[in-house]
């Protein structure tokens, strides 16, 4: 990889071919009876929806899920008209006509959202497609039994294309809530006249066919995250993040590195200052918790030390001995040597947070899918 001509402090490589491969893997996993949609909210989990959505479309995806109205309107022209764009949070009052005009399908989560969408249909004399979300026991979005009863008449006035719900504990296959949410979904969806049902996101797919229904909605797994924590990842890695060295320091025992003097050298040390900080999504508290690797020395874990600054962090590279390093040298922070889920675990985060926090200051390099 040639970093020489980039002025950026970090280099983000996003493998579109691996996203394509992951989509096809998930399709193989669920079989022909279940469609595979894609969650592309939050700019496709930080990876760039304008690059990612067309790759998924070409792989066969026709059901795209985003969170907000603005995301939905931005996504609509990026995929052809035979793809549906679903807006998960549902519209705030006043946005209904914009969604309808843009050809976006809202997920209606509450009696109020249903009433306003139904009112739009009555006003315009044409029923617009929508999704109904059922609360199956996560208590975040959707209708419970009472709300379903109250919405009764309005439901009849809608063109409901899909009934869905969301699992709270799918990354813990043994958790009893998975089965209880599935049962609640099965019971409550009877009140909703919809041709298709959907329950599973990435981890839910791996709970088995009982959870697949007609449509699954993976996000994280498409982007190389492990949907089966604790077991080897069934997905292809997608993201590599390399951070570049600005300068290095040789320090004596007792020298304190960085803000608040939080790291004090217990031996003469070699310290590299790398060009990414908390403004780039590296948490301020990462010091003492995670590592980077020089790709030429893949077996040596180099600890991040001290407080992470806004634009830089310190790496203890004493273990490299006197190996010469030029300014601009790249260290792997996330990638094949430092898997996304391992870095997230180190930092007491989830990989979702790391991905969605990836900075726009990084140089972005997209590896095209091999045709
Ligand atoms: C974000 C989201 C998804 C995708 O979840 P992953 O765990 O990333 O696969 C699916 N459905 C809903 C409702 C979501 O909010």
TrEMBL record:
Sorted UniProt keywords: Isomerase, Pyridoxal phosphate
Membrane-spanning parts: none
Top-tier EC class: isomerase
SMART domains reported for this sequence: Ala_racemase_C
Catalytic function, reaction form: L-alanine = D-alanine
Alanine racemase C-terminal domain boundaries: 238-367
Cofactor(s) annotated in UniProt: pyridoxal 5'-phosphate
Pathway entry: Amino-acid biosynthesis; D-alanine biosynthesis; D-alanine from L-alanine: step 1/1
Keyword Transmembrane set for record: no
EC number annotated for this UniProt entry: 5.1.1.1
Function statement: Catalyzes the interconversion of L-alanine and D-alanine. May also act on other amino acids.
Family from the record: Belongs to the alanine racemase family.
Protein name: Alanine racemase
Organism encoding this protein: Brytella acorum
Organism placement in taxonomy: Bacteria, Pseudomonadati, Pseudomonadota, Alphaproteobacteria, Acetobacterales
